UniProtKB/TrEMBL annotation:
<feature type="domain" description="Luciferase">
    <location>
        <begin position="55"/>
        <end position="131"/>
    </location>
</feature>
<protein>
    <recommendedName>
        <fullName>Luciferase domain-containing protein</fullName>
    </recommendedName>
</protein>
<dbReference type="Pfam" id="PF17648">
    <property type="entry name" value="Luciferase"/>
</dbReference>
<dbReference type="InterPro" id="IPR040841">
    <property type="entry name" value="Luciferase_dom"/>
</dbReference>
<dbReference type="InterPro" id="IPR048273">
    <property type="entry name" value="Luciferase"/>
</dbReference>
Amino acid sequence: MWYIQTLVTSFYALADRNPDIIKCAKSELELHADAIFLATESLINRNEKTRQLKGECVHIHRLKDYSLHMVLSPVDFFDAGWGQRHGFSGVKIPRPLTGGRQIDLPSEYLLIYAPRTKEEVTLVMGLISASLRYLTGAEVQ
């Protein structure tokens, strides 16, 4: 599963190349996972989606199957055809399910399938870039 290591390495490298826009930290939505967060309060407060997620943009399920959660514009998602809406997209998750935390997921919150090849890693990294562009209005390197 060398391609999984490529995904993880690319994930962190993306954050390292764009420190003015994003940073890595422990996910607040998926325990036991690192996530890419928006780097500044002004980016977090840019729109309702980024505020709902408290700046968290994408995380990889490293202890599970290496699928990802992220927010994508509806156009990017339907063009890619590489995932499905999260079961709690667009709703307030009941506190008993979240350890007492209030989590409201945007309707564009998606489960992206785990890549299985080098080409699919490239596709998933493209989706991450599209997610960040949608959430920040900025291009990432």
